[in-house]
Amino acid sequence: MSAGVFGVEVADELRGIVREPAALFFSIVMPVAFFALFVSLFGKFGDGGLSAGTTMIATFGAFGVISVVLMNPGLGVASDRERGWLRSKQVSAVPIGVTLAAKVVASLPYAAGVIIAMTVTAALTGALNAPLPALLRVLVVLVVGALPFALLSLAVGFQVGAGAGAALLNAVLIPTSVVSGLWMPLDIMPAFFRDVAVFLPNFHLSELARAQLAGGPVLTHVLVLLGFAIVAAVLAAVSYRHARS
Amino acid sequence: METVLEVRGARHKYGATQALDGVDLDVAAGECVALLGPNGAGKTTLVNQVIGLLPAGDGEVRVCGGDPRVAATRRRLGVVQQALGFPNTLKVSELVTGAAVRAGKPRAAAGPVMAELDLTELAGRRASKLSGGQKQRLQLAMALVGDPRLLVLDEPTAGLDVPARRRFWQILAERRERGTGVLLTTHIIEESSAVADRVVVLDRGRVLAGGTPDELVARLPDRTVIARTGLGLERLQALPGVVSLRTDGEHVRLGTRAPEALLRVLLAEDPGLTDLRVEGAGLEEAVAGLIERGAA
Hints:
The complex is a heterodimer of chains A (245) and B (296). By secondary structure, chain A is mainly α. Chain A has one domain. The radius of gyration of chain A is 18 Å and the shape is globular. In chain A, 47% of the residues are buried. Chain B folds into two domains: 214 residues, 3-Layer(aba) Sandwich (Rossmann fold); 60 residues, 2-Layer Sandwich (Alpha-Beta Plaits), CATH 3.30.70. Chain B contains ten helices and 13 strands. The longest helix of chain B is centred in the middle third of the chain and has 16 residues. The two termini of chain B are 37 Å apart. Chains A and B meet through helix 1, helix 3 and helix 4 of A and helix 2 of B. Chain B: It comes from Lentzea albida. Chain B: Its main location: membrane. Chain B: Pfam families: ABC_tran. Chain B: One of its GO terms (cellular component) is plasma membrane. Chain B: One of its GO terms (biological process) is response to antibiotic.
């Protein structure tokens, strides 16, 4: 499979996002807008180390990238399936895995865009106090760490329509993000939130990103995310085999 | 002559329903084979096996000698499916160029095919905004741009007006002369009769008959006597020369090879006979007759 074919697939997906950006508006603008609100209110707080605004790049950033990769590829697949376009791709000379990978890859620049927008917002409000290398590590960790969520998104997209898929994915995204402390610190939340959060990949992604800024162990978070990636890949594969036509 | 499609013993089950039960089918280079049969005959299942969406059970499907479930084999395959919805965001030229690249052809291959299908002026238009006929032409352009050895057409002219339909078949005739084989499914039986070299009749997952349209017509009565009559169905079936009997609303349709003898008896037995007419039996009658016999 040539790079040219993959390039065509990614280009088609990017055109789809650029020419019809309504879906991504909510998954990009909403997290960044929330971030701007919270960072302007609490961004300069801190305990002498990292400012709250810098820490929020890891937590709100995790919410932002998950939001992008959870919504985009799956809802795209659901729409393609409903109009018969997915079937057209399945009978083309391109392995279907390449088509699906292109959908995921095309959402990554937008995920990175969320992090960059949040970082710039934190800097503009004077709440950013982390060195550039650490911020770049956060960017890489969040974008790469969000990939398993894209597989989960595809698993949903193979089974339900775009409208139902958006509702279902939001019903997964928002509660798990709140419980994982991506919107507000777990320290100020009820204790049982943390008990639940340790079982959620959202929590481990944000903790892994936070470790790039504040240091701390990463192995557990990496292992949990790897495990989640395997489960999501199996779910996506099973869902594809039983995809509704 | 090179065989571009070979199907041997294709089977498929949906739960307890045997959708295909040992189907054999060949399409030679440049040949057009029409697949006919009632709803539920197994046509869609067979087409899905040919285009690689379904396995062939314990049978075998080969497109130009390769397994169509392998992506590389599908470079030799072009598909036009019915009622395809294009993405809202892609333009005609992007779709045809993309199809060329996916089929391993240069981007420049898109231009001539778009011109051949009168799509050049629509190049910058979003595909989802095209009319039904334009969308069908776009699908055909995307299928042809890879220069396939086998084209699979599923109800390709549904929704096209007569001139568009003629143009469609004219373009395909040119491709067939260059060796592209065609597997066609359609409900427009007259169209099959006009464009197909061979017709294969499927019913309940089995091949009932196959041959040229003329051969199929010759197997069945060459005249149909249509009338309103007071005679019972049992008596009608027993009349001399009747080889098939169907009711069509208040009329009966009697297939026969000896219409004169049948008419004499019919008029003698039923003086109240009305709406009498005699028609030549065509491919539609032949296919219906074959399916009736198969069901009997």
